[in-house]
Amino acid sequence: MGFPVPPFISHARRKRTYGVVVCTLAVISTLAISIGCSKSAVNSSSEINIVRNGFLKIRRGSTTVKTYDTATVGNALEGKFKGGTWRQFTSPEGVVVEFDAPVSPATLYQNGFSVWSPFLNKETAATWGRGGEKGSVSLRAATTCIDDRQKRVVAHGRGLIVIDCRLLFQVQFTVSAERKSFDLRYISLATFDTDDQGKVLSYIFS
After folding, report:
1. Which stretches in the chain have pLDDT values below 70?
2. How do the domains of the chain map onto residue ranges?
3. DSSP 77
4. 165 and which of 21, 96, 145, 153 could share a cystine (Cβ 3.0–4.6 Å)?
5. Alpha-carbon span 152 to 130, nearest angstrom
């Protein structure tokens, strides 16, 4: 379909008119592509990628006391915790980058964290819940349960125990104002039922 041209415009002028329209559309298309590229460039240099592509350094004041350089932060977290998500937000400290992911308590138990107590046999499991459950989550780790439909709370001599729910792992980093470095801000040690941050980080970067 052609663009309408007034009948009093000559054939030659019509060609020039179409040429102007085509050129204008080409310019608009070029601008649209340029805008898209600019947006992509901003995303690729975002604070999230500064953290994902960097190596974690633990600092005490201005002194670096430990560097985890076996893998970038992104490779380590995404390798250990499948299905995780990244986001960033602003706090009084500056820009904070956060990574959240679900994790099985049985997986952590198999890697040396006492977040889970496996049932010894089917008969024991049957007395605690439906036959599908194979263990119970510790009380501290249970505070991070994210699956209500899998959550089973039962009475026990030691209190309430949650049986077989997925746990939420969360870690946060603060990006420096000059966007050249970042520091560990928070890590959910309760997920691992431990206060040993070094043990958790060694597991993540192993």
Report:
1. 1-45, 119-134, 148-164
2. 47-204
3. H
4. 145
5. 9
